[in-house]
Amino acid sequence: MTTGTPSSTPPSASPADSPVTMRRATADDVPAIVSMLADDPLGARRESPDEPEAYRAAFERIDADPNQHLVVAERGSRTVGTLQLTVIPGLSRRGASRALIEAVRVHSDDRGTGLGSQIIEWAVAESRRLGCSLVQLTSDATRIEAHRFYERLGFEASHLGFKMPL
To answer: DSSP label at 76?
Structure first.
C-alpha cells in the first residue's frame, strides 16, 4: 500500500493486485464516500446521498479539525475504501492520546479481497505515527462478521458501548 499524506505502511496486497494508495479525502471525494456509507443494510436506512449539502458541510467541519483524518483508499483512480481516524487527546493513561477508527467502508466490488485489512492496518500504523497509545473502534452490534474481522486483526471486544440519539 502506498500513500500520499498522512503516512504509509508496506504493501500487503498480492502482486496481482494494483497498489492501494491511502490519502486525505478532498471535497471531491464526498460523493464516493457517501455512496459507500449508504451501500449496506444499516447505511441504506440512515444515509441520504441525494442530500449532498449536509455531507459537504460535515466534510468542511472534519477537514478544518486537525484531529480528524478522513481518508480514502484508491486503486488507480478509483475510490475503493474510506475511514475516519480521530485523535482524542486525554488525561487518562498518563495523558495519552487515543485514536478512534470510524466509518470504515470498502466498495462492494472490493469486499473479500483483503482491502479492509489493509485499510485497518494503515489506520493502526498511522495512529502510532500520530503518537497514540491506543486505537479503538466501535461496530454495530448486528455486524457479527465485522466483529470477527476486527478480532482477526487483533482487536478485543473489551467494552460495552452505549448510545443516545439526540
So the answer is: T
Distance CA 20, CA 164 (A): 37
The model's pTM:
0.85
Average pLDDT of span 136-146: 92
Look up residue 22 and give its three cell numbers: 491511502
Q: How far apart are CA 63 and CA 84, in angstroms?
A: 11
In contact, 108 and 8? CB cutoff 8 Å:
no
Grid coordinates representing 25 are: 479525502
Cell of 66: 486537525
Contact 82, 73 (CB under 8 A): yes
DSSP 110: G
Q: Which three cell numbers stand for residue 96?
A: 495519552
Sign of CA dihedral 96, 62, 151, 75: negative
Of 94, 97, 103, 82, the C-alpha closest to 133 is 97
